[in-house]
Design goal:
Layout lengths: L1 E6 L5 E7 L3 E5 L4 E6 L6 E6 L2 E6 L3 E5 L4 E7 L3 E4 L4 E7 L3 E4 L4 E7 L3 E6 L3 E6 L3 E6 L3 E6 L3 E6 L3 E6 L3 E6 L3 E6 L3 E6 L3 E6 L3 E4 L7 E6 L3 E5 L5 E7 L3 E3 L3 E5 L3 E6 L4 E7 L3 E5 L16 H14 L3 H67 L20 H12 L5 H12 L1
Parallel strand pairs: 2-6, 2-8, 3-7, 3-9, 8-10, 9-11, 10-12, 11-13, 12-14, 13-15, 14-16, 15-17, 16-18, 17-19, 18-20, 19-21, 20-22, 21-23, 22-24, 23-25, 24-30, 25-31, 26-30, 27-31
Antiparallel strand pairs: 1-4, 4-7, 5-6, 26-29, 28-29
Helix pairs in contact: 2-3, 2-4, 3-4
């Protein structure tokens, strides 16, 4: 393990052009940049020019930088950890997982193939393409995610959350800013989303349980069932549409039909719009729900209740419910398979990289063996260059070398393939030379 230290300057830029392993970048001393290499120093290339320090490493590296330094990351084949940074951070491609902890840095990621975990950040966060799951906790600024191929879990977000396409489920709790989603292929569950919401398309079920802020809009479109729960005293105007069963508890109803209800609670200060291809249920805590009970009290009450329950159950499409559960399980299984495939691919990538390094070592060893052979051959010629007159050769032809070119190449190939060592190659050359 090697340690390297460089003097830092104000406004310094750190560039990790490529790291063929894991990398850690964290805030350290303000006056220096320190590198810790989990390997030999010759496996890392460092260039220092004015206020820019450029690093390329084939071994795991940990870099301590001034907290305000500007960070640019090219490609990391392993995991990347960023901790306690306050400057601008950009990253092109991370093949492993990305962990972001503390700091006020504005962080931008182009492509990430592992999980994204962010905790205790006060700077903005954006990621273009995340091929696994996203977990966010205690983020004080806006988060923008282009596409997520796994699930999204977030809690305690002080800023807004913009989501493009999410292949898995979305679970959000305590988001103060606006939540937007272009397309979600799984289920959506939002609790305490007080900053407004705009869900363009949720292909699974949608659950929304939150107080509503005056002047804001909460909108959602789903293919699956929708459940909406609001606290007592809610002031909002509701527009609800469902192709399935529609149940709502509103004190004031302006328009009411089997599949559409427009009504109001309180002064109607917030706007709420939900529509679904399935069932929709809205309940405001404290409001009394109105039921029609078409019982014939002259008949057997138990039989009437049983018939009423049977009629209600008959309105439920159990096949559709079962199919949705099956599709949900299949989506989860597919995500687990994809995670396993990515882990296997990551392991294969690391194995190929190690094999390449081994081949490079073998090639250098073969070159050293070839150079040693050339030196010995020259020494042999120098020592016995005039000895040809001591021997009789047909028609004055020079003597053929005792070790042919094919034999030399064969020996070098065995060294390269790690079948023999350099010392064994030299001994073999000596034996062939007689």
């Amino acid at each position: 393990m090697d340690r390297l230290r460089y003097e830092a300057s104000d406004g310094m830029t750190i560039r990790l052009s490529e790291v063929h392993s894991d990398a850690v970048i964290q805030a350290g001393a303000a006056e220096a940049v320190e590198l810790v290499l989990d390997g030999d120093a010759d496996q890392c290339t460092i260039q220092s020019e004015e206020d820019v320090l450029q690093i390329a490493s084939h071994v795991p590296v940990s870099v301590s930088v001034p907290a305000s330094a500007e960070i640019h990351v090219g490609e990391v084949t392993g995991d990347l950890i960023l901790r306690g940074l306050n400057g601008t951070v950009t990253a092109e491609t991370v093949h492993g997982e990305l962990l972001l902890q503390s700091g006020a840095a504005a962080i931008s990621i182009k492509a990430l193939y592992g999980d994204l975990t962010a905790e205790d950040l006060s700077g903005t966060l954006s990621a273009g393409d995340v091929h696994a799951d996203v977990r966010l906790s205690n983020i004080k600024a806006e988060v923008v995610l282009g596409s997520v191929h796994g699930d999204v879990r977030a809690r305690i977000l002080k800023g807004g959350l913009q989501l493009g396409t999410v292949s898995g489920d979305v679970r959000l709790r305590e988001v103060s800013g606006e939540v937007s989603l272009e397309e979600g292929n799984g289920d959506f569950k939002g609790t305490d989303l007080r900053g407004g919401m705009n869900l363009h398309q949720v292909k699974g079920a949608l659950s929304f349980k939150s107080a509503l802020a005056p002047g804001l809009t909460y909108r959602g479109r789903a293919n699956g069932d929708i459940i909406v729960r609001c606290p007592e005293g809610t002031s909002a105007r509701f527009t609800l549409e469902a192709k399935g069963t529609l149940r709502a508890t509103l004190p004031e109803v302006e328009e009411g039909s089997e599949h559409r209800i427009v009504g109001q609670s309180g002064d109607g200060e917030a706007q709420v719009e939900f529509s679904t291809d399935g069932d929709l249920s809205l309940k405001i805590r404290g409001e009394q729900e109105h039921f029609e009970m078409p019982f014939d009290f002259g008949a057997d009450i138990a039989a009437e209740i049983e018939a009423q329950i049977a009629e209600s159950l008959g309105g439920l499409d159990f096949d559709a419910i079962a199919q949705r559960e099956i599709e949900k399980a299949m989506r989860k299984a597919e995500r687990e398979i994809e995670k396993a495939r990515r882990r296997a691919e990551h392991g294969r990538h690391i194995a190929e990289e190690r094999m390449q390094r081994a081949q490079e070592h073998a090639q250098r060893a073969a070159q050293r063996a070839h150079q040693a052979f050339q030196r010995r051959h020259q020494e042999w010629q120098g020592a016995f260059g005039g000895a040809s007159s001591m021997f009789r050769f047909d028609r004055g032809r020079p003597p053929k070398p005792k070790v042919s070119e094919e034999e030399q190449l064969a020996i070098l190939k065995m060294v390269q393939e790690n079948k023999i060592t350099i010392e064994e190659a030299e001994q073999l050359l000596k034996a062939l030379e007689g």
